[in-house]
Amino acid sequence: MWAKLKRQIWRWRGVLITVPSITGGLLILGLTGALQFMELVALDQMFRLRPFEPPDPRIVLVTVDESDIKQLRQWPMSDAVLSRLISLLKQQQPRVIGLDIFRDLPVEPGHQELVNVFKSTPNLIGIEKVIKTAQGEVIQPSPILKQRGQVSASDLLLDADGRIRRSLLYLRTQDNQSILTLGTKLAFAYLEGEGITRQPVNSNQNQFRLGRAVFTSLQPNDGGYIGVDNGGYQILSNFPRFRNGFRTISITDVLKGRMPRHFVRDRIVIIGLIAESVEDRFFTSYTTNSIAAPAGVQVHALLTSQLLSAAEYGRPLLHVWSEPLEWLWIILWSIIGSVIGWTSVSPQRTASGVIFFGIALLISAYVLFLAGWWLVIILPLLALVGSAITSNGYLMWENLKEYARTLEQKVEERTLRLKQEIVERKQAQETLSQQKQLLQTIVDNIPVMITLHDRQGRVEFVNRQLGQILGWSTTDLNNIDLIAESCFDKEQRQQVLDHMLAATGTWLDVKIRTKDDNFVNTSWANVQFCDRLFVGIGQDITERLDAALRERKLAEQSSILEERNRMAREIHDTLAQAFTGILLHVGAASELIGKNPDAVQVHMETVDELARTGLAEARRSVAALRPQLLEEGNLYNALNRLTSQMKSSTDIHLHCEVIGTAYPLSPNVENNLLRIGQEALTNAIKYAQAHEICIELVYEHKQCLLRVKDDGQGFEIDNISFRGFGLLGMSERTERIGGELIINTQPTQGTEVVVIVNRE
């Protein structure tokens, strides 16, 4: 269980690290008030996106604008005009009248008339300025209205940016008396006529019920506010949004009798100024410019409408969550952002996820706002974005570290491989150098002359044998062209050059002048090594120009027109092997004379058969150079018959076997394999001192193997010179058929001769 939990913690480590750090930092930043202005701006934007509501028919505004002041020809208006205005309004029996005009001092003429109107109008509500101005002043109410308890406060609350987002319901005067604000007092008076009164909910008076609404006083850190002054009884302003505002009539129209009948009956009438010159304009959340800013009388009317609609119709007030819930709200979006960043494979997907969930955050906050809940937007939005960026950055950093580790590991592995390759290359170079030296040694010790020349006849390489035969030193061989000029006359040089470039493989007899002006009879054959190089092979035939050589040469030219050396090789592989067998049998018969005549007779019969076979092979070699053993059967039968002949002349256990399914090879390949097997078998009998010799012919899918193994004394392969006619013959025959010769031997460990040829 603990191991599984540890795996899950490690899997989501980016989220578990990001959420506390980002959320904690943002909460600390939010508590400092640095983001308060942004939250208030976001709240204003949601107000402006709110749909329009139908106009409130319960409120009528009697306004004084610039044209009314011109008609009155004075400001403030006289008490006589004001008393006449109130009297005209009283005739239509409004529910309550709010006077949003200060009357702390008489304005003659008509002051006494106004006093009488005040005394006779119990539903008239006046105003006073309770909160001190910047100059430390307050404005007293009308003494008559103050005496009758018909006074309210005209004070409005402004945020730091000068906007009204909070509304005062009541506050304390200088003498510590509770006083309702104008909008609140008008709403309470109207609702009393509807039978709705204020009912306390708790003992500390911070909550009360008014009809269908429950009011809660604003706290210093509610919503987006941080440490706001919550003196008095404040609520969040949730003013309705009207398309054309309230029903309005000018004071001039009322005084001139142009007020429609029943226009203000049973309604709330608020008298106030909207003239620009009075500078009684305020910005609310709906306001976007100074022209559309409502006047103070309109702000009071908006508060009254908000209270009436909440009490009568249950229109939502603007509520906030408690601080713990707001913290959880921020943490939730931080978790979402962290998960997006931690699970996204690229910054593009992270940005797409942040945009999608950011829109979801804004929509959910707006829907809750319409339902009466003000949720902070900026902090969770920053938590979403910051967590996504941080977790994705951490993920990319982790991936980058992993990539760096992988890259470092690959670099180390590559470095090791390079070091190994360097070592292998050095070893290969050393091996190549050794092979070159070996090849040079072999080429220099081959008892033939070898040259390498280009298409123009320029000689690029000669072996040491040529220098020894012609008497030239190594220094002389560096200027081979001058040597060629001294060795041949002009006509002979052209003949040699034509023969070299023809590269037909035929032999050309050439008499060459040596350094000491003697002549050497040579024979040359030329083959093409590659596209531009040719190889010349020459033999010194001076000492071999005897009758036998001429006879063999004439026989070779008249039969298969192959190289002279092959005739000598075939004669060696036929007559010499037969003579070796005859000698073995003669020696065995000599030991048995007088002891076992029957055994002697058997040996003599074998000698007779070998002699006849040798004679037949000699005749056949002259005729076609193909072994008679192969003429009478396949390669396995020939090897098996050869083994049977050897058994009768030795006590060594000989056996021949075939592995795989036999298939025919070319006559040239079978001929050379038979001769190689014959040579290897003869060498094993003569020199190995073996107890058992095995000949295996292995037929594989793509290649054929001839293997001759013995358990004899073996030898040091490095100490055997390839000048030996038998081993050299096997090597040449293997090269002739494009095969591979392998000799595995060690002292006292026996010898294994393997020839591998391709099936094709």
Automatic annotation (TrEMBL):
PANTHER family: NITRATE/NITRITE SENSOR PROTEIN NARX-RELATED (PTHR24421), SENSORY TRANSDUCTION HISTIDINE KINASE (PTHR24421:SF62). This is CHASE2 domain-containing protein. The chain crosses the membrane at residues 12-38, 327-345, 352-371. SUPFAM superfamilies: ATPase domain of HSP90 chaperone/DNA topoisomerase II/histidine kinase, PYP-like sensor domain (PAS domain). Keywords: Kinase, Membrane, Transferase, Transmembrane, Transmembrane helix, Two-component regulatory system. InterPro entries: CHASE2 (IPR007890), HATPase_C_sf (IPR036890), HATPase_dom (IPR003594), His_kinase_dom (IPR005467), PAS (IPR000014), PAS-like_dom_sf (IPR035965), Sensor_HK_TwoCompSys (IPR050482), Sig_transdc_His_kin_sub3_dim/P (IPR011712). The keyword Lyase does not apply. Residues 435-477 form the PAS domain. Residues 673-760 form the Histidine kinase domain. It comes from the Bacteria.
